Amino acid sequence: MSGCRFLSTTVVALMLLCSGVTVFAAGDAEQGKALFVGKTAFSNGGAPCLACHNLTGFGMADGANYGPDLSTLYDDYGREGVEGVLQSLAFPSMEAIYESRPLIETEQADLTAFLQQTSELSATPGTGKLLLLVIVGVAILLGLTFLVGLRRMRATRQPLIDQHRNLMNKGGLR
Length: 174
Prior knowledge:
Layout: H1 2-19, H2 29-37, H3 73-88, H4 92-98, H5 105-120, H6 129-169
Helix pairs in contact: 2-5, 3-5
């Protein structure tokens, strides 16, 4: 019986290989995250996904805006759709980058696992980090400007006030 099972598994595998269907490994979501954000370089030297795409909760400004937001990619297309997109990357702006630098199968599997994991999270990391940093930065700059301005105002205005008082005391101004 085990010989028959081995034979049927072999026949199915050969049929899949001959039909051109690629069987993807499970993939490592952590490795996919490292590839997505650029912590780990792609084997063939392609740019990290975050260089062009946005994914809620990643990067200071939550990613770039050249390509579409990929936060709901897995929900919209499912595993097969994501695998197909990563296998072909048949978008005009991506073809120029990845035509000579295709993703290898393990990278495709890792990115798919990562995108699946992000879609399964009930709450993605909070957005607005950049806005908060901008507000804090502006407040600090305004505070420093005010403090420097007070000092400069005293240093500039006091001599003018003294000069004006001297003129008034001498009877030059009425």
